[in-house]
Write a structure and sequence with these properties.
Elements lengths: L24 H4 L8 H20 L10 E2 L2 H8 L3 H11 L8 E4 L8 E4 L10 H7 L27 H4 L11 H39 L2 H4 L4 H16 L4 E4 L2 E4 H9 L3 H13 L7 H33 L4
Helix pairs in contact: 2-4, 3-4, 7-9, 11-12
């Protein structure tokens, strides 16, 4: 491998980047001792992907969050071949591995749902042990919530006495007809929400395929896999957003115009964006907004950018006596 000279970080430059978080317990808990480092990294990537599921309300009828993470994406993110990608996934799944993920096939050409399981095993976890382990800061565990699972007694601070004897005004003789109506209503809402989530998921996957084709994604991944992946997710998220407008260069731009611009980008535009992001040395406070603005402006600024570089290479060298 050819050695490359990378630049130093100066001042607060590191704050302009986003990072993946790897749970400390994956390395300190003995039950994860036989899990490979690749599997731990992939599990962390899947944990990060859950934030996307939350935004899109990808939940099943039992309110359980699931994600989409295809084998192709595993190969791209982990920079590995098909066989190794399959092996890493197998280490994590419930059938062949440790059980940190559960995969549910949908059939009909649809991607597999992946449930990312809680690595803490919360059913047997003592809240005080979380503080000691370092997985969660002390401030995130409220002492007022520990030990309050039982119903308080009559006349307690949580339930004043006058409220505890209020059964005479409630409907205690709840008949079967009422229960059936409520169940039908709940089931109907669940079906509607399920259909809505499925349509939204299909929409995201459709735009993912469109953008990958437009920017020649596989070839582009050879340049900077992490940055390209982030740009792709930002483009999909923006295009599928229900926002009416976006803040670009300090101005409010209609959402439709932003989406139209993103859908018109090709591989050359993305290469230009990557080069622009790499050359930036300023302290960016909102990296996501900066990346979106760079993508939006790419089509209008790419020609001037490369023209200035040609002019500099040609006439600058003449002035310096090189030509």
């Amino acid at each position: 491998m050819t050695s490359k000279q990378f630049n130093y970080y100066f001042g607060n430059q590191a704050e302009q980047f986003s990072f993946y978080r790897v749970p400390k317990r994956l390395f300190t808990d003995s039950k994860f001792r036989n899990l490979s480092s690749d599997a731990k990294v992939l599990y962390s990537l899947m944990l990060d992907r859950m934030s996307l599921s939350l935004k899109n309300d990808w939940k099943d009828d039992q309110d359980r969050i699931y994600i989409y993470f295809t084998l192709v994406e595993v190969q791209e993110m982990m920079n590995c071949g098909h066989n190794k990608g399959v092996k890493i996934m197998a280490e994590l799944d419930a059938e062949n591995g440790i059980g940190l993920i559960q995969r549910v096939k949908q059939g009909m050409g649809k991607p597999t749902k992946i449930y990312v399981m809680n690595f803490l095993g919360m059913e047997n976890v003592n809240p005080e042990s979380l503080i000691a382990s370092g997985d969660f800061p002390t401030k995130e565990i409220k002492s007022s919530e520990i030990g309050k699972s039982r119903v308080p007694g009559i006349g307690s601070q949580d339930f004043p006495k006058k409220e505890s004897n209020n059964t005479d005004i409630s409907k205690t003789d709840f008949n079967e007809t009422d229960k059936e109506k409520i169940n039908l209503s709940i089931n109907h809402r669940a079906r509607v929400n399920s259909v809505k989530r499925q349509k939204e998921m299909d929409r995201w996957m459709e735009y993912r395929d469109i953008f990958k084709k437009n920017i020649d994604y596989e070839a582009l991944m050879l340049d900077d896999p992490e940055q390209v992946s982030e740009l792709l997710e930002l483009m999909i998220e923006t295009t599928c957003s229900e926002a009416k407008s976006f803040r670009i260069n300090g101005s409010s731009v209609p959402a439709e115009r932003v989406k139209e611009r993103l859908l018109s980008l090709n591989m050359l535009h993305l290469q230009y964006v990557l080069e622009t992001l790499q050359k930036n040395t300023t302290d960016v406070k909102n990296i996501k907004a900066y990346m979106l603005a760079t993508l939006y402006n790419a089509k209008n600024t790419i020609a001037s950018y490369y023209q200035s570089r040609v002019s500099h290479d040609l006439y600058g060298r003449k002035r310096e006596g090189w030509l």
